[in-house]
Each structure stands twice: as C-alpha cells, then as structure tokens.
Amino acid sequence: MKNILKNLLKLSLMLLFVFAVSCKDDDPIIDPIVDVIVPTTLDFVGSQKCSQCHQDHYNRFIESGHPYKVVKINGKKPDMPYFDNFTEPKLPLVGGKQYTWADISYTIGGYGWKMRFIDKDGYTITGSTAQWNPGNNTLTAYNSTKPVGTEKYDCGACHTTGWVSKANGGIPQDNLPGMDGQFKYGGVHCEACHGMGNKHAVTKSKQDISIKKGTTSCNPCHWRRNAATVDNMKQQTSGGWEMHRNQYEQINTNKHASLSCNGCHDAHSSTRHDAKAKGMGVKKDCKSCHTGPKYADRMHYSATCIDCHMPKTVKNGIEYNKYRGDAPNHNFKINIDPAATYFTKDAAGTTWANQDKKGSTLDFACYSCHKDVNNVGGTNSWRTMTELNVKAATFHK
Question: CB neighbours of 319 closer than 8 A, spacing ≥ 6?
Fold first, then answer.
C-alpha cells in the first residue's frame, strides 16, 4: 500500500513539473468551474458574435450607418438599408468611362449623405462626377483635380474596424496597391468602439470589454482636427461650407460642451434615418431639458428647435442654396447680430466657420425658411437681416 502511495505521489509531482515547464504566458486559461478556454491574447470576433447575447443592440446597429462606412463589392450593389428610396446608386462617370459594379472593389458610405467608390486597384475614384448623393440622387465631384488612380484610401481609422495603416505595419488590404493599410472588417462595427471581444465572448464580464459612455468613443471620428497640434478646436471649411465631422468642435462652442454625445444620442441607432430605422438615434430632444413656457409656448410658428438652432451649414455632397447645405451643425447658439458673418478668414487667409464662437449667424438660421433680399432661401416671406434681428431678439423671452 505504501509503495502504491509513493508511486502516485511521484506521478503527481512529475505531472506538476511537466505542466509548469510547458505552460507559457500566452497559453489560454482553462476555467476549472465551467471547463472553457479563456483567451489571454485579444482578438476580434465580429458583430455577429456579439449579436448572440446583444440581439436588440445588434438589430438597431445594423440599421444605422456605422456598419456601411466601407462595404466590399462582389459585382453588385452593396447590401444596406436604402432609406432615401434610391435603391440603385449611380456609379461614377469619369473621363468618358461609365463605371460598373465589376469595376468597384469597395464603396465608402452611401447610407446617409454620400457614396464614394474604390476601384479594383484600391484607389478612391476621383473626378467631376465621382460621388453619389442619395439625398437627391445626383453625381457630384470628388477631388476632381486629382487624376484617377492616384487617390490612396487612407481613411480606414474612421471607416473600418481594426485598421492598421502601412505606416504602422499594415499591408495593403487585399494586396491592392491603392490601399494604405489593412482592416479586419469594413465599416464601424461593435469592436471599433468596444475593443476586441474574444475574451468577453467567453467570460461575459464587463471587465473584459470597453464600455465608454462619454465623448471619448465618438471623438476620434467626430472631431475633425483632433490630431492637429494647434487650433484643433477650429471649425474647418472646404468649398465655402463647413466640413463634416466637426461635431465636437461645434459643441464645444456652447454650454452643451458639458454633455456627452450619449446623453442625447443612442450610438447603436440611426440619427440620419431615425424615423424609419429601429431604435431612437435621438433619445433625448431639446424639450427634454429646455422646459417651461418660454420654450413650450414661444416657438416660431411651425419651426422646430433644430430648424433654427442647428442650421445646415455643413455640406457633404449637396448645396441646396447658399444658406442650406445637407447636414446640421451642433453650434446650438444663434448669433443675432445682423452684421455677423459665419465664414471668416484668419490672418493667414484660411477660412474657418464660427471663429468668434458666437454661434450660427441669422442668415443660416433663418434663410432656410425665409428669403433674403435677393429672393434666395426658403419658401416663406422675404426678410432683411435687420428684420430678422428684431424678431430673433424676442424669442424665448
């Protein structure tokens, strides 16, 4: 009996030694309670995996614009919700060439404001009719001064999940020379904001996934100048309009800077097509906080809060008239000085929006509905800037 016990003890010690010398730092951990392998090296698992536990979030997310920022093309149009009713995107017509889906490797966007196209060599197609605008089903220019086949795709940090640029060791996606990096998934998927999810998929622990409810998740892509070393809160312009992705710069010009993006928005739901898509992209509107008679009763006819306080000073692809682009700003404040100018140049001659941080000027706030002295603007009554100033001074008093 003693010999048997001695032999068992020797065998146990030998097994323990073998385990100790063979176990490495990056070996998976086996949970003795549930007998599952917990990864020690983080990796992506994909949004479909997330949907197994977070089905409601996934159902809202898949009808938002985030997953369609970049879509791989296989000879036919991308599969995405076409809430603007234009179900067949128009393809570029550049240099006499009418592109077909067989000429396209990826699309960029198209859910909301614009769709751009990447050719079979990985270059973003440029030209005077290279961009499709679903808002009015038109083709307009994209970097028309650049020859076709020279515009490298380098926007993956905000358009894809798991982007690694060539400068940081990435290799061209699909070995296409025009791709300036690689990515795990096209589009902004769960793990773009929440981090790699393979460990969380096993443990189900909140400690193994990133849950950010402030602005830090949104800032990397909705703060255009966040990498700038100087003037990184200036509102950048192009072609006479404010550029998209200026939301963080805009909101920091007013009292709403203390709020988080998630305070008003559900990042998993669509804001662009909030009325049609699942969920509530805007989960808290202005009247949720701005209560009382001066807000409830002292409105301007049928105008909504955002009609005046979030005018469309931003142009993604469409300029409806000189006072109306195709996307709202987040300035909220209105500068009622009739002599104020929204777009001004600095000492170096660069044009910026809202340099004085006083908010959207009256022309943009009012002439989307009213007409200016040259009958340019909306369909309502003709008004001078002085008349607009007198009227605006009485609102919400």
Answer: 241, 325, 326
Q: What is the pLDDT of residues 132-184, one digit of tens each?
A: 999 999 999 999 999 999 999 999 999 999 999 999 999 999 999 999 999 99
**H/E element holding 335?**
strand 334-335
Render the burial of 196-206: b for 16+ CB within 10 Å, e for the rest. bbbbbbbbeee
The percent helix, strand, coil of the chain (3-state, each to 5) is: 25, 20, 55
Spans of the chain below 50 pLDDT: 5, 13, 15-27, 30
Q: pLDDT tens digit string along 80-96?
A: 998 888 889 999 999 99
Beta-bridged to residue 377, according to DSSP, are 371
| Distance of alpha carbon 131 from alpha carbon 166, whole angstroms | 26
**CA-based radius of gyration for the chain:** 27
Q: What is the pLDDT of residue 101?
A: 98
Residue 140: closest CA among 381, 294, 375, 318: 318
